[in-house]
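Table 4 source record.
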Amino acid sequence: MKARVHISYKTGVLDPQGKAIGLTLANLGFEGIGEVRQGKLIELELAEGDAEAARKSVEDMCEKLLANTVIENYAIELADD
């Protein structure tokens, strides 16, 4: 089973890298772009075959290491290979 974890800043948390990306896009002539938020994607290959157990395991990983839950949100996607 594979898991993807999408991590992004919570609303209200400053995102200087997102702001820099937005400004650069505007400087390159791209129009109509509002706020830009930058995040990260972590892909995991899991030996677990049970989706519920896999999700719980990945949630524990996020809470303990992968995401700073004070300032970041995370979303988990699970897929069978």
